[in-house]
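To close the chapter, one final illustration. This time we ask the reader to focus less on the individual chains and more on the assembly as a whole: which components sit near each other, and how the overall shape emerges from the parts.
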Amino acid sequence: MMSTQGAYYIPHKATWPIAATIGLMTLLAGFANYLNGNAAGSTFMLIGLSIFIIMIGGWFTLQATESETGMYNKGVGISYRMAMMWFIFSEIMFFAVFFGTLWYTRNLSVDWLASVGDGPGRSSGMLWPSFESVWPTNGPGNVGGEYEPMGAFGLPLLNTLILLTSGVTCTWAHHGLIEKNRSQLIKGLAATVILGFIFVAFQAIEYQEAYHEMGLTLGSGIYGSTFFMLTGFHGFHVCVGAIILTVVLFRSSKGHFTPENHFAFEAAAWYWHFVDVVWLGLFIFVYMM
Amino acid sequence: MSAVTAEHEHDEHHDHGPEKGLLRWIITTNHKDIGTLYLLFALAMFFVGGAMALVIRAELFEPGMQFVSPQFFNSMTTMHALVMVFGAVMPAFVGFANWQIPLMIGAPDMALPRMNNMSFWMLVGGILLLASTLFMEGGAPASGWTLYPPLVLQTGAALPFAIFAVHMLGISSIMGAINIIATIFNMRAPKMTLMKMPLFVWTWLITAFLLIAIMPVFAGAVTMLLTDRFFDTSFFNAAGGGDPVLYQHIFWFFGHPEVYVMILPTFGVASTIIPVFARKPLFGYSSMVYATAAIAFLSFIVWAHHMFTVGMPIAGELYFMYATMLIAIPTGVKIFNWTATMWQGSMTFETPMLFSIAFVVLFTLGGFTGLMMALAPVDFQYHDTYFIVAHFHYTLVPASIFILMAGGYFWLPKWTGNMYDEKLAKFHFWLSAISVNILFFPQHFLGLAGMPRRIPDYAVQFADWNMVSSIGAFIFGFSQLLFLYIVIKTIKGGTGEKVSDEVWEDAHKHGLEWTLPSPVPYHTFATPPEKIPTEHF
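The assembled structure is written out below.
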């Protein structure tokens, strides 16, 4: 099966991209309306999200079908792999912003607020004479009221072990795929997906505790902001990764993928390891230090 | 599955051309169609952004309040910048990339054609969201394109729309950049090694890397604005332990590479055009590549020179001052190489060359004022005055915009098979080149004398030069209608003279695209070319 453009498969007539755009735009415009207190906003969000989900389903089905009917040669596979790697790089930069924010506030701006050192904040002691530079903090204004910081050695440690194990099971599944051991592939993937969702569930329990027992919320000053923003975006990425892996699991059970042709599996695995590494960063810099 | 197979078998029977009707443009995956879409969209946005600039210059024609409210004036400065950066200059260069990169490297299309289509439509979606803010309660964002908190948090209903617009534009740029990288690394003709790629391809490769690195950073920054406003976070709120200056750091970590996203492809097009009309190979090809990479690297470590007056530790001021001045070295290498390419060449002065020479001269001027402002102590005088406005407009208008015009005149005959009207085009050039200096040169004087930017009124001592500048602005703005006319006329048949395959004398020695028929067929390089031009190397 070769396209008219020779060896490299060039698809024609793409209908999903415009659906993606309309879906995303409706979702975002709806969300913006919702934030502005407009009642119709949430309806538009739902419509946009539905279009977007249908688009993802349709587009991925198309790609899977094309892949299984042998339309992608090695060159196409290389393009997909490059695209995935650079996409993950862009995600790393996105997380870098929030890690950078944590670093900047902890090491620079909180000190300046408390007039530590002779930096730019040496005069702010006159504004907030009783404020001391400590971490965690919710700032000189005690924004969000009293709270208890999140410890590292309960659920977070357990979650670290869960994610690390899921990385191992994912690699084990990959070995199964390469050695044509289908049941190892499916078992490994199933274990990874289950561990992923357990992680998300534990995270939900942790948030529950933070909000209802510890007084720690997104509004708890800079500590609450960085804590929930970092762990929240990470949790969202775990969900996305687990959904991708579920799709890969479903495809594996239908007999898709060969040792030579399994880009979707590789992409999902890379993404999963990326999410894993981000968590290690979170565990060290958000929970432990 | 059967539908896909059937469609595919159908494809094999006859080499199909474009879809009929409007649907062609919505579902196309062809790099030439998508390039055309990008370029036409950019041209439209150029006039939208230009109209906003004319509102600004009309208001500043005389001291006192003339036409618009201060709030709307500031909305105009903000929207003019956002529309020009994200709607005009960037998409125009992506349009060039779409058209030219596959032709220049001998590829059948971009590496990921479906995603290419999505990049374009996400751009349209983002700009629509942005434009919708103009009609909202409280008006469009009026904080300047930098969207600094806490000021930007006072925006009315427009704020979340503007933020989500940035998200969509970011998605569009990242996908476009990924596509360009995959195309360049994976789709080159066998003999086209990296160091034999045309410089335009090199500059886009490096630009794409910048885009992937910075767009997520901007997305993160505006996401924090969103949560600060709607979800009680304290990222930029000192009372909660945050810091508004943090936003400035993050923004400019994005913002400085971002301005190089607009200038590096400019360098690439100039390096493509100048050798053709000097009838010489590009001087110092490899040094051009290394200089581009060096500029890109430096762009990541100089961001705080936009914030010298914000209150940084003295060590920070010194570091960012020296690092910034380093950029003059690779940029100087480039200016030197373009000059050396022209040196003793048998030059002719067709319109693309005229615009390119004007670019070399006027960009150098913009570069020198940049060097002046890199000096932290003197920047305290220039900061947020019209001097900075003059500086970055010199690096964007007679540089990026001029080179976009040059590229348009240079490649349009190849794409359409029709020649543009050289006489009219030269008239367009001289009108633009003279008026752009009437427009921006006096702004240096205004800035040095202390006129602040983003203020709708000013002291009477600034009246004369503001009037001169506004007159220049209107001449420049309306001369661009001439460009629109020439482009439309060329697409519709031009002078009637059919151009040869190489269009410009001996152009086939400079690039693969000139070995193809004119107009370029809908599908090209189904099989990669055996030979590649070698004159450069």
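Confidence is low (pLDDT under 50) at residues 1-5 of chain A. The radius of gyration of chain A is 23 Å. With these observations in hand, you are ready for the problems at the end of the chapter.
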